[in-house]
């Protein structure tokens, strides 16, 4: 049976109500991965195209958001965190190379933090990866990509840290 956006939102809500910890979020990431392996679900979310960032669902009580992202060109993102929130990146189409960073000096007081490059890995269709609070990472896309992300809250309304990469 094909997953729907409403069913995904209901199941995310149920999982997060039962366990809002990183373990519960990991269950949400696994659920998103299953949804992204459902080609009909992916096709339905991106039918007619999508802007780079679109809120598809926002839970009024828990605050989490399900978003669609469509990028047409290559893009290199800088190291960032999600402030006081978490996010799950789910690869729907294309490939994203993600780099994790180790914080050397936290961001704060209007100053950029300092980070060192950690591991890099590919997110491919059906992959979903959880970034908990404070996890610094940067995406890189060599071509068109589509993602479904779940944010603990609408990150467009959250102050987030910026970071400078320092040599190893």
UniProtKB/TrEMBL annotation:
<dbReference type="InterPro" id="IPR014710">
    <property type="entry name" value="RmlC-like_jellyroll"/>
</dbReference>
<protein>
    <recommendedName>
        <fullName>Cysteine dioxygenase</fullName>
    </recommendedName>
</protein>
<dbReference type="InterPro" id="IPR011051">
    <property type="entry name" value="RmlC_Cupin_sf"/>
</dbReference>
């Amino acid at each position: 049976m094909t997953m729907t956006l409403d069913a995904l939102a209901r199941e995310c809500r149920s999982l997060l109500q039962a366990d809002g910890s990183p373990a519960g979020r990991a269950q949400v990431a696994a659920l998103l991965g299953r949804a992204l392996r459902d080609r009909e679900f992916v096709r339905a979310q991106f039918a007619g195209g999508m802007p780079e960032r679109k809120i598809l669902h926002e839970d009024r009580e828990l605050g989490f958001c399900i978003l669609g992202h469509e990028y047409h060109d290559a893009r290199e993102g800088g190291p960032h965190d999600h402030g006081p929130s978490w996010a799950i990146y789910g690869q729907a189409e294309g490939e994203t190379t993600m780099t994790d960073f180790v914080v050397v000096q936290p961001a704060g007081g209007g100053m950029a933090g300092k980070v060192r490059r950690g591991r890099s890995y590919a997110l491919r269709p059906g992959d979903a990866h959880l970034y908990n609070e404070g996890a610094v990472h940067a995406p890189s896309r060599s071509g068109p990509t589509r993602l479904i992300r779940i944010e603990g809250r609408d990150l467009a309304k959250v102050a987030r840290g910026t970071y400078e990469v320092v040599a190893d």
